[in-house]
Amino acid sequence: MPGRYSYTSPWSRGNDPWFRVGQVDVTTTVGLIALGIISVFIWAIEGASHQVSLKLLLNPEKVQEGEIWRLITWPFMNQVSFWTIFLFFIIYMLGNQLENLMGRRPFFYLLLALTLLPALVVTLVSLTSSSPTYIYGLRYVELGILIAFAAQFPFARFWPGIPAWGLVSVIVGLQFLDALSMRSGLHALTLLTVTVTALIGMRSFGYATDLHWIPSISLFNRGTSQPQQKSKRQGRKWARKNHLRSVTDLQYRSAEKEIDQILDQVGESGIESLSNEQRKRLEQHSKNLRNRRKP
Questions:
Q1: pTM confidence score
Q2: Residue 141 and residue 54 share a domain
Q3: Residue 4 domain flag
Q4: Domain carrying residue 262
Q5: Which residue among 165, 239, 259, 293 is least packed, with the fewest CB closer than 10 Å?
Q6: 88 inside domain
Q7: Is residue 235 pLDDT above 60, yes or no?
Q8: pLDDT band (50, 70, 90) for residue 254
Q9: SS (H, E, C) 206-273
Q10: Are 272 and 210 found together in one domain?
């Protein structure tokens, strides 16, 4: 299937931002990481009491008492550590790819599902449990992004050449083994909820088409009485509206942005300022343009 063995550069700037702050495009991915970074600073500044952070984590007892916001805010309690920063890096790298592919709104809805559904499951199950249960941090959301990425790009290579499906299988498997070692059924249930949400979410938005065994939910179907042909046309319109772009198109758009930057550098500093690699990229792009224009 085209595109299953490749994906665009994680640093490409093809995403549609919600808004701009100076020169920064605030996409869904950037906004998520910005909130995560703010939560780290809050954790560090507030001291040992952590009064603000403890108001954000998912505490099922507090949710039952009416603090409904905890169902959404629990990912934004993040402790200060190297692994937290590494987690943000993974979210940025892979989240950018998925948002580039899906469009900002579908990707936002996927993140919302990865936040809300596990929180609801934990809260409901905790009603029958006597031991207190808390979940917090972006690690579950990051795991959902990893699973969604591997579902769409199973053969994308990570260092040192490990395919995405293999790496994610190991990570998820280790998480389940950790839950087993701690005899934490609720932890295992949370992992299962994140995994199922990510897989069904990708299928429901029209991706991960190789995974036929995963069910798909018609999220945007408003009725079954319309003729099948009309439904197909509406599906195609929805796909175009929500930026369902092929990997080839993404690569071409990314290359155009890179060439624009090179041309800006030539305009400002002259062609002598270009490195050998930049000259090769410019020549290759000119050749590709000529080939595309040939009948």
A1: 0.68
A2: yes
A3: no
A4: 247-293
A5: 293
A6: yes
A7: no
A8: low
A9: CCCCCCCCCCCCCCCCCCCCCCHHHHHHHHHHHHHHCCCCCHHHHHHHHHHHHHHHHHHHHHHHCHHH
A10: no
